[in-house]
Amino acid sequence: MSRTEEFQELRPLLFSIAYRILGSVSEAEDAVQETWLRYSATPTEPRSARAFLSTTVTRLSIDVLRSARVRRETYAGPWFPEPLLADPYEDPARSAELADSVSMAALLLLERLSPLERAVFVLREVFDFGFPEIASAVGRSEAACRQLVVRARRHMTEGRPRFEADRTEREELASRFFDALREGDVAGLRELLAADVSMVGDGGGKAPQLARALLGAERVSRVLGTVFPQMAGLDVTFEPHEVNAQPGAVFRDRDGKVLHTMTLDVLDGRIQAIRLVANPDKLGHVGPVADAWAVHRELGRARRTAR
After folding, report:
1. Predicted local confidence at residue 159, as pLDDT
2. Which residues contact 211 (CB under 8 A, 6 or more apart)?
3. Which residues contact 208 (CB under 8 A, 6 or more apart)?
4. Which end of the chain has less Cβ packing within 10 Å, N or C?
5. Residue 238 to residues 17, 226, 297: CA-CA distances in angstroms?
6. Number of folded domains in the chain?
7. Would you identify the family this protein belongs to, as annotated (predicted)?
8. d(CA 89, CA 236)
């Protein structure tokens, strides 16, 4: 097998490792591309292509994450990971861990870990790498890596998100939610939301976003049931789509360009959290990005006309 073929075979794994460490599709793709450049330029044949490539992409991702942390400290408003519509890596034996680890809630929890803890946790707990492999990837002893995993596991367990175990039930609830949203059915929305539901948006200062988190079923259902029909009047549409392995949707303007994504956290038969990603810098991989400010201004004009 040629180097190109080996790399292409392992590319889904490399991207999936990088995305979980970085929480960014664009940065993960850059890390994978740089990994290929280093692999193709290596004069000697590595003993194991998988070990060489996973080590390289892990180290690159750690370096990128360290610099990204500084930028995120000054980020305008809440920071969410870039939405992922499909994880390219599949492993039936670990499908539950893969889905859980890529959820918005889990990725936000990973943000609490140091870059090294995050990388070691991802390699061990998500992809089941052995400690010799992990030690080689991060340049630490096996004993140090075991300690890093213990600390990371403790932090993750303390705030571990739990999702609806029954996938069919979760999807049915999401379908009812999006039907009610489409119809502007405030009462229908309210009965699907947890009493303490939160709705938060990430615009990064580059798109309209919620001034602060909306809390409570009454308030969230009223805003959703009022605003979306107004947006629909401007030919804004949405398509339900799994986002970060959770129920979600992609919202588009009248030209089919992406306005924002929405994800739903479901637990105990109710929607616990709604997260919107509208920062255009985080949506380019989903499709052509809409001018959200133009839609916002048009919505304002429509409201004033209706008064």
Report:
1. 67
2. none
3. 278, 292, 293, 296
4. C
5. 30, 16, 19
6. 2
7. Belongs to the sigma-70 factor family. ECF subfamily.
8. 32
